[in-house]
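User: Here's a chain of 171 residues. Predict its fold as tokens.
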Amino acid sequence: MDRPLTRLQWLRDHARHEGAECLIWPFGKDDKGYGVVTTGRKRIRKAHNVMCELVNGPAPPGKPQASHSCGRGHLGCVHPGHLSWKSNSENQKDRRRHGTHLGAKGSRATLTLDQISEIRRLRGIETQESLARRFGVKYGCIQYWQSHDRPPAPPGQSRSAQARRALRNAS
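Assistant: Prediction complete.
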């Protein structure tokens, strides 16, 4: 079994990696596909965050997220040239551009109430990745519905539109 030092050393050894193709983390990954540096079964840090810190220094104020220019972080990419520190807003814009944001293909609003109930019922029983494939949505959509108890907005209507309508009707 590899020790954390071996994994950290692997990152240090690859901090000057060149080439255009993604450098895929060869060790353990979390349930979303991101590489992790672990001790036994306890996760310490995400591998791409460690690599970003090795090549770009500590995260600057206001830019706490290691962002992937390749859009393949969920596949375990730790390529030093693909990583930079970005704000949450900048990272979400990149995710939209890459098609890896929560609303990509099968946004929360496209699921039926029955599907959302099924997704919630299967929390901890079936993996988020498996549910995402089954329902044709991104795993972030599954994660959202498994962690929020509120009912979905009607199809084609955002929560903010619902709130504005409620305020107008209350006046």
